[in-house]
Structures are given as structure tokens and as C-alpha cells.
Amino acid sequence: DQQVKQNSPSLSVQEGRISILNCDYTNSMFDYFLWYKKYPAEGPTFLISISSIKDKNEDGRFTVFLNKSAKHLSLHIVPSQPGDSAVYFCAARQASGTYKYIFGTGTRLKVLA
Amino acid sequence: DVKVTQSSRYLVKRTGEKVFLECVQDMDHENMFWYRQDPGLGLRLIYFSYDVKMKEKGDIPEGYSVSREKKERFSLILESASTNQTSMYLCASSPGMVETQYFGPGTRLLVL
Q: Can you tell me whether residue B20 is helix, strand or coil?
């Protein structure tokens, strides 16, 4: 059973516009959420995170929003650039016993020049 | 910069072979992880280790084992490779369980 879901496998956006990547989760015990970016032939790299006690975190062009009541988070990239084209994974931390992270299935973002 | 290296980028093995995937990190991190990445399934945790000689099962440990004899090195072992273990294998490390993870470049394994 997939506890972290990214329902859009792919997304295409024009350069300069906003990219919105979505992630839904089912487990209310998750206390921390992260987004990773992955280029082909490379490992994922950390992008931005948010604690469950917050509803927004911003870092330059990247903003993550958390809606706990809807169990939904989203990553906004403004403005989108061709170098943002990658696969984006959301991950949630399960804070019970030893911590571990549950990853979503990923969304492939393509930013068109 | 944290560096996580994996011994091979590509591997081709036969069904039934014993396969070793090696991972080394150079930042003295306590925790190390092995994931596999498959299309439509994302990253799934196989095993993790929070200290030398300590290990815990992740979500899909069947058919795998691990070894952590030194802090910097975490090995994933496929005891008897099967075709359904064809996948991209990613190693990661973190300084603590609550910190972000740093990933290696991955090993693409093909089992024939």
C-alpha cells in the first residue's frame, strides 16, 4: 500500500512559468517531508523540506506547501528553468521507533525552452 | 562536500549468482541506507544501518542481506540473484536519522 503518492507521473511546463508538483500521503504519523530532485544517471539530491508544524517553507525559487488536513503537499517552482527538468520525489519521515523515509513514485518535470 | 560512492555503475549478472554491491561514504555518517528504484514504484527501502554491525530491515528486505563492518562502508548482498532483482540500486547516508540523506550515483543491475 503506497503511503506516499505522486499521482502525476509527468508534467510539462513552459520556461518562466510556474511548476506545481503534488504529493499526497495517508499516514498522519509523518512529521517531516522532503523533496528530492534526480537527474538521469545521478542519485537524488535534497531540494527542500518542511516540518509538519509548518505550512510553508521557501528557498529561492522553490516553495513547499503543506496542508495537513488534506494530507497533501506541493512543490512550487517559480520561475521554471530548463535546468529544472528532472524527476522529483517527495518523501515523508515516519517518526516512530527508528526513523525511516517513505518515498513517492516520482514526477518527471520537463521545462520547455 | 559529502561523497557517496558505489562500486559499479552497471552490472550484469546471471540468475543464481551471488552479487555484492558496495557503498562508501566519506563524511563519517552514522546512518546508511540501500534503496531500489523501479519505474512506477519510486524508491523503496531495502535495509538500513544506524551503526557499525547494526542493521534493520526496510520495506522490501526479502532476497537481500547487508553487511556493515566499518562505519564508512555498507554492502548489499543478493544471495541468489533473480530476474525480479533487476533494478537501479541507490545507496545513501545521513549524519543522523533526522537529517537529509545524501545519495550515491546508483548501480544499474541487470539479472539475466
A: strand
pLDDT at B2: 67
pLDDT digits (tens, 9 = 90+) for B61-102: 999 999 999 999 999 999 999 999 999 999 999 987 677 899
What's the pLDDT score for residue A96?
66
CA pair distance A38, A27, nearest whole angstrom:
25
Residue closest to B18 by CA, chosen among B85, B106, B71, B70: B85
Q: Check: CB of residue B7 under 8 Å from CB of residue B22.
A: yes
* Minimal Cβ distance to B56: which of A89, A98, A106: A98
Q: Which candidate in B2, B3, B43, B44 is best for mutational testing of the A interface (most A CBs within 10 A)?
A: B43
Beta-carbon count within 10 A of B40 CB? 7
Angle at the Cα of B9 (from B45 to B47), degrees rounded to 5? 15
Letter for the amino acid at B17?
Answer: E
Does residue A18 register a pLDDT over 90? yes
CA distance B103 to B83: 25
Instruction: Give the integer Cα–Cα distance in Å for B50 and B68.
Output: 10
Helix (H, G, I), strand (E, B) or coil at A90: strand
| Cβ–Cβ below 8 Å for A106 and B97 | no
How far off is chain B from A29, nearest CA to CA, in Å? 15
CA dihedral B39, B48, A68, A35 (to 10 degrees): -50
